């Protein structure tokens, strides 16, 4: 059995999972989340297999001190020595056009990762902190990078090319890349085990960040996030699709800098803006039932945009065999799933209300008569990264 550590670094957070595997069975020995790195009030949660979650309040200055603190916790609870770790897998947001699959990290890969980091203005650097810290702490342990954009490298030109002057693509590589690829890949792979005949699939990864992907014969052919993770459907605090001129207009008429507009588009928009300050759909749903007008508007805009993408991708693929809901909202919000599916009744899609009341489980929602299959499939990006890490390193 080999032990593999999986890391997912955010700018002020770091998720970790320790797997034990023989390449067939993957057991999670421990997992947790470090929050508020570099901010007062930081802490690390830790949960060993079948145990209660523990929270440790610790001062975490940066990703390196955070990783050292995580190692201390692992050594006190589930590891005898750091030498037990055979490989480390990292989740990365962007692989540009360089990577269409996971790779072992070496100096050449690092150069390409540095080159693509600015393609994700808010998150790009954060992903790198974890790799840099890990390479200095465990320099002899192989490390693997799994890219959120890799699964979408199969998109045809007509889906990834924007109608900009050609040098914007040829020289500056501005194109649709797409994200959440590891999640879309995982849930579509799980669906293919249950429903191998489904060749036209729409995967709805709906969380605080959301994307919808058209998957034909197992390959991503279009996806709602584009050059950055700001476009597509309405998100928790990100605006999703807006007229391309709006940011320029705001800068020109309201004396705002590019950085201020960037922050606005990523942190102050989406459901948060529409609902009057709530980015979590649980809060918005509660307000919706209280008759709050802003909450009702936020929900209506959200459903409108999701339905619009499902309709567009159905047309692109010439039909749809199955729709998958996954991630925080997709797995848990019976309310939003029902609203989205009700709008799709025109194509013969029907879901079972009682089954839809369940949360966080793999279930088929569609009724026997439904012409489109609908599934909730909990995502598991860490498992894909662990599998890729094992297959590349062992
Ligand atoms: P991310 O990984 O992008 O941070 P997640 O996929 O974890 O986000 O999704 C988080 C979101 O999922 C929350 O902001 C909330 O809107 C939604 N969510 C989580 N649990 C529930 C629930 N029980 N009911 C409805 N929505 C939920």
Q: Could you provide a short overview of the structure?
A:
The protein is an alpha/beta fold and 394 residues long.
Report the CATH C-level class of the largest domain.
Alpha Beta
The unique ligands bound to this protein are: adenosine-5'-diphosphate
Q: How are the strands of the biggest sheet laid out side by side?
A: 5-4-3-2-1-6-8-7
From the alpha carbons, calculate the radius of gyration and give it in angstroms. 21 Å
Folded structure, characterized:
- With 394 residues, this protein is of the alpha/beta class.
- The chain folds into 2 domains: 2-147, Nucleotidyltransferase, domain 5; 197-376, Nucleotidyltransferase, domain 5, CATH 3.30.420.40.
- It is 39% helix and 21% strand.
- The protein has 15 helices and 14 strands.
- The strands form 2 sheets. Strands 5-4-3-2-1-6-8-7 form an 8-stranded mixed beta sheet, sandwiched between helices. A 6-stranded mixed beta sheet has the order 11-10-9-12-14-13, sandwiched between helices.
- Strand 10 and strand 11 (219-223) form a beta hairpin.
- The N and C termini lie close together (11 Å).
- The chain binds adenosine-5'-diphosphate (ADP).
